[in-house]
Every structure is written in structure tokens, then in C-alpha cells.
Amino acid sequence: MNEQEQARLKVFLVDDHAMFRAGVRAELGVHVDVVGEAGTVAEAVTRIVQAEPDVVLLDVHMPDGGGRAVLEAMRRTHPQIRFLALSVSDAAEDVIGLIRAGARGYVTKTISPEELAAAVRRVADGDAVFSPRLAGFVLDAFSARPEAQLTDPELDQLTNREREVLRLLARGYAYKEIAKELYISIKTVETHVSNVLRKLQMSNRYELSRWAADRRLV
User: How far is 10 from 70, CA to CA, in rounded Å?
Assistant: First the structure.
């Protein structure tokens, strides 16, 4: 890795919160070259191609499909670019979903700048990197019931936002609380719940809660 360190790795940031991007750029920029950033999926796909980074730091939950949508758009045409998920979420479903989509690792936003720089270097070297607790999710998924956990047609038909709403609903949040948590209107929450019920062919939130608990989404 010495030669790559001397050349300085090129890193691209994808996150829909500008202040968070600025913080990461300032702290990570000591260790690597931050060659670009984006706040939406469309911006990310275009700018990543232009910047040609070694590693993309990718948020999970953003509008228009989030990090998974970026991965799915890029992995076939630019397989040389490695992706490391950097998210506030530590839910098993998010971790497995991003790894399935092609991410080389997944760390949470509580990580220190030094640890993040080390994780970026390891991903650039081809290693898989996870925050300690999250590594267990991946091991479980590959060892216990790999087909059930890595390929779930019912879950795959839900959008990222629908999954977020489902998880909060299963945790007992009221519609008003979900709206506040996700910065959306109550009417939008109702629409998402309706869509989830229809897609999963269920009739009420209690059935959804049991379904989510069975898949360890809560």
C-alpha cells in the first residue's frame, strides 16, 4: 500500500447532507485527495465517471434510490471503482442490501477520521471492511440462511424509502413520528405504508411488524 499512499488515494463523497460532506472533506482530506462530491443519485453517477476516484464513500439513504441506486448504475460500467458505505444506519437489512449491490464495506458515521482513512485504504487494496458489529450481519447472511437472507424477492420490491418507513412502523412509531424522523409529510407516510401493504399483500401494520421482525429489519 506504500506506493498508493504516496500517490494519495482519490476519494469521492456521496451524501445528501452538504454539511456532513464538508466535515468529511475537511477531516479525510488530510489523508487522501477528495476529488468530488454529490448530493443526489443523478449527480453522483455523472460526477463519479468524470472524477475517476479509487474509492467512493456512499451514503445509504438518499432520495431516488440512495446508495444502492448509485451502485447498481456504476458497477457494470466501472467495476474498477470500489465503494465503501458510510451511513448512520446500522440495520442488518441496509448492510446486506449494500453488499449485495456491490459495496466492498460498510462503516457507520460514528467512525473516527483516522479509522475512516484506514478503511478507505483497505477497500482500495481490495479488502472488505466493516464496523465490528456489522461484520456479524454479513457472516450470518452467508452462513446461516444464505439464500433467504441474500435473496428476498418480497423485500427487493420495496424502495429504500418504503423500507425506512416499514422499519420505523415495525418499531412502533406513529405516522406523525415517522414523518418527523424522515422529514416527510404524514400524507407521504400514509402513501408509503399503503404501497408496502399492497406490495406485500398485507392488510394492516401489525402484519407488517411481524413480517419485518421475522426478517430482522426492526
Answer: 18
**In Å, how far are 21, 98, 183 from 116, measured between CA atoms?**
14, 18, 28
pTM of the model: 0.63
Return the higher-pLDDT residue of 148 and 58: 58
pLDDT in tens, 99-128: 878 888 889 888 888 999 999 999 998 888
DSSP type of residue 30: T
The pLDDT value given to residue 25 = 92
Looking at the DSSP bridge assignments, the partners of residue 11 are 34, 55
Predicted pLDDT at 102 = 83
Domains and CATH numbers, the chain: 2-143 (3.40.50.2300), 153-214 (1.10.10.10)
Q: Which has the closest alpha carbon to 121: 32, 27, 30, 26?
A: 32
3-state secondary structure (DSSP) of residue 85:
strand
